[in-house]
Design goal:
Shape: globular
Strand content: 5-15%
CATH architecture: 3-Layer(aba) Sandwich
CATH superfamily: P-loop containing nucleotide triphosphate hydrolases
Helix content: 55-70%
Bound molecules: adenosine-5'-diphosphate
Strand order of the largest sheet: 2-3-1-4-5
Number of strands: 5
Structural class: alpha/beta
Largest sheet: 5 strands, parallel
CATH class: Alpha Beta
Radius of gyration: 16 Å
Number of helices: 9
Order of helices and strands: EHEHHHEHEHHHEH
Length: 190
């Protein structure tokens, strides 16, 4: 299986690229942010729990997120692989993901990171907030907090996958099509 962790700071374009790439490679796209937002819209217990964290730009607690991710994976049998978008976001999520996949005789093929300077991202997210309806995209204080969470808890995952020789950085600045092409060059190798 091709199991790819699509990585990058908030607003890097993971969701946009994942949607394009999942069709090209016949992979299942799991976006933890999208699953949380779906649960919030439908007012499920999970949604109620996640909402307060997401509204502030904080990460949702690991145990909640990990259980949800596993349930999403289990919904898909006999597939050729996954694009994980927004997961893992902490080292313990990464460890749990490895354990979970090993139990299935499977593994992560690679982490592919979209690299975009932070100063470009805040404006991109504010622009997205004008149309996305996402409250966490509309307030600069919340956006800054998401970067703080990213820098404190998520950025370390680069090292985690580098140690396993599974890290691939891709320049995330340019047109959507150009970035898709760059990502494809890496996906083809994995
Ligand atoms: P972004 O555009 O910031 O990458 P996402 O749509 O991936 O946004 O996620 C939005 C929010 O959902 C995060 O700020 C966080 O509160 C929550 N979330 C998503 N994935 C995770 C995760 N793996 N662990 C904890 N919280 C998460």
């Amino acid at each position: 299986m091709k199991n790819i962790v699509l990585f990058g700071p908030p607003g890097a374009g993971k969701g946009t690229q994942a949607i394009l790439l999942k069709d090209k490679y016949n992979l299942v796209h799991i976006s933890t942010g999208d699953v949380f937002r779906y649960n919030i819209r439908n007012k499920t217990e999970l949604g109620k729990l996640a909402k307060s964290y997401m509204d502030n730009g904080d990460l949702v607690p690991d145990n909640v997120t990990i259980d949800m991710l596993k349930a999403e994976v289990e919904k898909n049998n006999n597939v050729s692989g996954f694009i994980f978008d927004g997961f893992p976001r902490t080292e313990s999520q990464a460890v749990e993901l490895d354990t979970f996949l090993t139990e299935k005789d499977d593994s992560i093929s690679g982490m592919v990171a979209l690299e975009v300077p932070e100063n470009l991202l805040v404006n991109r997210i504010l622009l997205r907030g004008e149309t996305s309806g996402r409250t966490d995209d509309q307030d600069e204080v919340k956006i800054r907090n998401r970067f703080k969470e990213y820098n404190e808890k998520t950025a370390v995952l680069q090292k985690y996958y580098e140690k396993q020789n599974k890290f691939y950085g891709v320049d995330g600045v340019g047109s959507i099509e150009d970035i898709t092409k760059r990502l494809q060059q890496v996906f083809d190798k994995l």
